[in-house]
Write a structure and sequence with these properties.
Elements lengths: L3 H7 L11 E9 L5 E8 L7 H10 L9 H10 L6 E9 L6 E9 L8 E3 L12 E2 L4 H15 L5 E8 L3 H12 L4 E13 L4 H8 L2 H15 L4 E6 L2 H15 L3 H5 L7 H16 L3 E8 L2 E11 L2 E9 L8 H14 L6 E3 L9 H4 L2 E11 L7 H27 L2
Parallel strand pairs: 5-7, 12-13
Antiparallel strand pairs: 1-2, 2-3, 3-4, 4-6, 7-14, 8-13, 8-14, 9-10, 10-11, 11-12
Helix pairs in contact: 3-10, 4-5, 8-10
């Protein structure tokens, strides 16, 4: 049962067209590999025919990011975000022949005007990172062309906000260098660290070093007790049909617990459920999605969704059956997943996609990656406007944090 949206994604023409939206050349900047830059802005509906160009750019990107690759981002935009307001700024190399080469893709969210004068790049709740796709060979010039375009298009633009970037990653460094070369101010917001699993560790040594022996002993005791209910085993679905079936089990597990009580389970929104089903199916067809499941006999106890891009993986979602909570099913699944990821020689890093100071995975994965929102002023510091906009953004975040604290206290969370 393939949805219309899935057909739209799967039946995309393979040849990328010439830029068909609002385009403008960028004066004074050329690609390292030859040709001038042309900037194009498109609504999300106009991105559906960029399959080959988008996928090719993702493979050449300075930083791989599954959340801004086509299978995830376009599916999310079609099913969750507003097609009217979500779009992209595309940076093309115009070498005088067709098709043009796509060198940069910056997803934008036209709905978010939290602070006047701030252009906010696209973010949705299910994105673990919002790193834009920038061609590795032409990265400095592409970043500069994008900033020049954003500065030119609005006379009162105070700045642009890039949410959830790896703070020490190549894209953040490149954008910062391009801004500083233009005398533009740069400021990080909400910098924090989250757990990651770097490759190269011996699974046995890593597990023994990460947890106290008393805790390991207790987890093994719980696993034996779980075995009284049926033979405990781990299943990893990676083939398309297996991923499809396992995804349904994952969605059912997640909808059986506290998220359903809060109204935030993925199955409780038709658009969100369709997004997850379509996205995982598309990635599985490319061998880039895994569902790891812990079972006791035939009963699914816990499941996790893994997404891959190049040498990186993202531990995107986890769910478990709360009636088995006394056996620490989430921890048991994560330990099994840790071993399997460390046994994959091509995986250099697995991102937990977790919040800072996560009570579970921070104890299992001691390595960290810094993440931050990056604000770049679109006028020189002496202009005054970027500094004023940055102060307003800082105030907005403080007020929003205080409001969330009050809300959760009132809800009893």
């Amino acid at each position: 049962m393939t949805s219309n949206a899935a057909r739209r994604l799967q039946d995309i023409p393979k040849k990328p067209p010439a830029a068909r939206g609002t385009t403008r050349p960028v004066a004074g900047l050329t690609a390292a590999s030859g040709g001038r830059f042309v900037i194009e802005r498109r609504p999300v509906a106009g991105l559906s025919d960029l399959a080959e160009a988008w996928d090719d750019l993702a493979r050449r990107a300075l930083e791989r990011n599954i959340f801004t690759e086509r299978a995830f981002a376009l599916t999310a935009a079609l099913h969750i975000a507003s097609e009217q307001h979500t779009g992209a700024v595309l940076v093309w190399r115009d070498s005088g022949r067709e098709p043009r080469d796509l060198l940069g893709l910056f997803l934008a969210d036209g709905r978010r005007i939290d602070v006047p004068g701030v252009s906010r790049m696209w973010h949705m709740p299910f994105c673990g990172l919002d790193t834009p796709l920038i061609d590795a060979d032409d990265a400095p010039a592409v970043a500069g062309a994008f900033l020049d375009h954003m500065a030119e298009r609005a006379a009162l633009a105070g700045g642009i906000l890039f949410p959830l970037l790896p703070a020490e990653g190549a894209v953040a460094r490149t954008l910062t260098a391009a801004a500083q070369a233009r005398g533009l101010p740069v400021r990080p917001f909400d910098r924090h660290e989250r757990a990651v699993l770097n490759g190269g560790h011996d699974p046995e040594t890593f597990q023994a070093a990460g947890l106290p022996s008393k805790k390991l002993k207790e987890l093994r005791r719980q696993l034996r007790r779980l075995g009284d209910l049926g033979e405990v085993h781990i299943e990893t679905a990676s083939e398309p049909q297996a991923v499809r079936d396992a995804t349904e089990m994952f969605l059912a597990l997640e909808a059986s617990g506290w998220k359903a009580e809060r109204g935030t389970a993925l199955l409780q929104s038709n658009g969100t459920a369709t997004f997850v089903r379509t996205m995982t199916r598309l990635l599985a067809s490319e061998g880039r999605c895994r569902v790891v499941m812990l079972r006791a006999g035939a009963t699914p106890v816990a499941a996790g969704l893994l997404l891959d891009a190049g040498s990186h993986s993202w531990f995107w979602k986890i769910a478990y059956d709360e009636q088995f909570a006394r056996f620490s099913p989430g921890v048991q699944l994560t330990l099994a997943l840790t071993r399997s990821q460390l046994e994959r020689p091509t995986v250099e890093r697995t991102d937990s996609c977790a919040i800072a100071d996560h009570p579970m995975i921070d104890h299992l994965w001691p390595e960290r990656m810094a993440v931050a929102d990056l604000f770049i002023g679109l006028r020189p510091e002496a202009h005054g406007l970027p500094a004023a906009v940055a102060r307003l953004e800082h105030l907005r975040r403080r007020l929003r944090g205080a409001a969330k604290h009050v809300y959760y206290r009132l809800k009893g969370y």
